[in-house]
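Quick start: what a row looks like.
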Amino acid sequence: MDDRIAVAALSALAHADRLRAFRLLMKAGPSGLPSGAIAEALSVMPTRMSFHLAGLDRGGLTHSWREGRQVRYAVRFEAMRALLAFLAEDCCGGHPEICGVGASGCCSIADPAHRPAKTPS
């Protein structure tokens, strides 16, 4: 994945409504959800939700298709995996023995002694 694609995907997630919709679609799996159901579940006006779902599509993280009068959205799981791999590509400075994949994130430090020094703010 190149930087341009990663920035587009991350930008698509950089809004609370889009992030919430993306997380809901992750739970829904490959069958996705109709845009109206997403809007209802997140208590967002349907037109506003359609705008945000289009942003996720443009970012390459979802795809949509028509089913009768409804538009369904689903996560592009291969794109999400590629983004996560891109973000973790250089995890832990090339020392995979201290990196781990877990619920807390893509790269979790297994040994607290290997934590990087905090930078002054």
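That is the whole record. Residues 100 and 108 are 5 Å apart (CA to CA). The beta strands are 33-34, 62-67, 70-75.
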